[in-house]
Amino acid sequence: MVSIEDYGEFDTEWCPGCGNFGILKAIKQALVDIGRAPHEVLIASGIGQAAKLPHYMNCNLFNGLHGRSLPPATGAKIANHELTVLAVTGDGDCYGEGGNHLIHAIRRNPDITLIVHDNQIYGLTKGQASPTTEIGMRTKIQTHGVFNMPLNPLALAISLDCSFVSRGFAGDVPHLTELITRAIRHRGFSLIDVLQPCVSFNKLNTFAWYSERVYKLEEEGYTPNDRVKAFEKSLEWGDRIPLGVLYMHEKPTFEDHLEVLHSGMLIAHKPKTELVNELIDGYI
Amino acid sequence: MSVDLNIKVGGAAGQGIQTIGMILAKTFKTSGFYVFATQFYLSRVRGGHNTFQIRVSDTPVIAMTENVDILIALDRTSIDEHLKELSNGIVIVDKDTVELEDVSDSIFHVPILKIAKDVSGNRIYSNTVAIGAALGLMCFDFDHLAGVLTSTFKKKGEEIIDKNIEAARSGYEYAKKNYPSGCKFLITEPKKKDKLMLVSGNDAVAMGALAAGVQFLAAYPMTPSTGVMTFIASKADRFNAVVEQAEDEIAALNMALGASFAGARSMTTTSGGGFSLMVEALGLAGITETPVVIFLSQRPGPATGLPTMTEQGELQFVLNASQGEFPRCVLAPATPEDCFYLTAEAFNIADKYQIPVFIMSDQYLADSLFTCERFDPSTFLIERHLLHANEYESTQGKYRRYAFTTIGISPRAIPGQANILVVADSDEHDEFGHIDQTPTNRISMNDKRMKKIEHLKKIMSAPQVYGAGNSQVTLIGWGSTYGPLTEVVDMLTKEGHSVNLVHYTNIYPLPIIPTKEFLGRSKKTVCVENNATGQFARVLKEYADISVSEKVLRYDGKPFSPEFIIRSLKDKGVI
Description:
Structural class of chain A: alpha/beta
Distance between the termini of chain B: 29 Å
Low-confidence stretches of chain B: none
CATH topology of chain A: Rossmann fold
Radius of gyration of chain B: 26 Å
Shape of chain B: globular
CATH superfamily of the largest domain in chain B: Thiamin diphosphate (ThDP)-binding fold, Pyr/PP domains
Number of helices of chain A: 10
Order of helices and strands of chain A: HEEHEHHEHEHEHEHEHH
Largest interface: A-B, 52 and 67 residues
Largest sheet of chain B: 8 strands, mixed
Mean pLDDT of chain A: 97
Strand content of chain B: 15-25%
Oligomer: heterodimer
CATH superfamily of chain A: Thiamin diphosphate (ThDP)-binding fold, Pyr/PP domains
CATH architecture of chain A: 3-Layer(aba) Sandwich
Number of domains of chain B: 4
Helix content of chain A: 25-40%
């Protein structure tokens, strides 16, 4: 039996009260609920406060470059698709620096769960605008307030027919745990955009601000099987912010298309180097 | 009489000059000749001016000389540009399709299109007629060509084969009958017919990777590296490998690193522009000590540069790419044999030292065809250097991915094993892989990584010495320039000069063999490089404290010919 203790408790470098704590707790609990042992889990991350998360739990981890959590996660999933692969990243990391990889990861549909700590601000570099910062917010760099349209990650993902699109809230750990559990169990690429208050740099989108606005889709009888309705839902932002699964459907995963994986992990296959002689003969 | 003939096929992209060239090259090879072929093409799918040049000899040839004996001109540009390369040669041209005034005595009109239509009923057989005509001028044994045509068009059925053979025979007979003096280039077939391969540098690299058991390749297509990716993709299913076309080169190398981290033998293929995007991930390979093979086929830069031409302009870039300091290995094949064996070896080096290893080729080596001895994969053993399953227990759940060891190499495990957690970080980290920014750890970890280069140095192979051991003049080369340089040595030695060649394929770390011993005996050392500044000369200065006395450089996008090098040596007063 896997227990929460297996995942350990570690000191962190996060600010007291940070939304990241809730997300860490939810990830660990979800893995326990599914019964995955730490050695069966690989977390790939990029750079940012969110990307430090895998260091604060027992698991295999590849803490790579800024914006690049998804390509190594994809490569590792191909090499060993029996691993439960999560990519943990932030709004700057995933929607800014790594935007191109997000688009193409959704297109590939590997069985990877992507968890984006979306605090609508840059934390590690101390308070600049991120791709999801709201228009008008002033920072030390955006001195006249942000002009650029915030990126809508859920609308983007639905437009690309992402197989699992959802939103969680770091302030509601049980709900987030359930969401992560569903996302990991889902076959295919899953996006969980997590509303994460930044207590140091985002004075607008606070715990209280979110708590007043969020509601749960499942409590309103919403079924996440219609892409157009889901797109409509993804545009809802302001007085009411939906939480839960907006869109979900099954389709072949990236691994499904790779025939070699049907008979076992790529790394478990013996290379057929003896066939090289045949190739060489073709040149004689 | 020894045979040494150059045949050039010129035309616009889309006219099929590559097919003509390949069939000719195969025909000569089949009949026992040594063949060397180069391609020159522009970055377009249709139009422009492209050439395919074949050198045929009864002794080994691995370079292209400048004099052309037979020019098959499919367009006017071919004549305008290449007529001057003929000294005693012939141009085969169809005046019915190529507008031409009587520009030269060497023009030999063959009604290619008319023959194609008359004999086979379709203009698409024109190229086959031209091939026949060229061989007719040599009174070559037609059966060899018939054999190659049969195997080339095997998949298209007997009718197509027969029509091609008929078209070729008619071109052949026409040339034999109508060329005024007949059999202009009568060549005698070698008696000894070795079972040689006819292979390009790119194909040899791809086969080397497959022989090494490559399991994962992620790349973004870029000339002139794409051939390797395409080749491996076409064989991937049979070899239990996965090839993924990444969204960009950043993703390509990052994916390869993820796969390698999880235990797959991984590589990427690119050229300088794509490698520019990979640089950050190169550092990631360095600090996470993740093995990877990077096939880098050079072309002239900067930026888009001359996309389809050749240069050795990326050496200093590869040696110095990325912030920070970490070990890497750079190998530069000189021949297709090197392409095969060094590529295979690169995977073992990457796995043993847990570093990125480069195979540096260039457009010239990538696209040229060589005849060479059959590759022997049995000489190669796959060595993964992974922590063995029965060693996991001993880690007692405290596996240290970056454990300090005397040689700097830490036992490498892959994720997914009970009792083992594998932690890799792009931050400076402790022995477990977790972030550690303390100065003492930083120094120990940096030293650990750099230590590996000292051990790697010991296995780097010495340069090859070609020609006499002691010479007045020593030419120095690296990578793809080996062919023309050896021919320069042969030509100058024959003329009575005292010249040899010291040629490097193991570039970095520079082998610790007494480099000075190789070069110190010469009065003059001349570094010959396909770039504008002498990048390898700088390597020799930096790592062996050797200053060369002269440099011969070429950076017009074209490869060296022996004649070019000899002219430069004479201009510089070296000989």
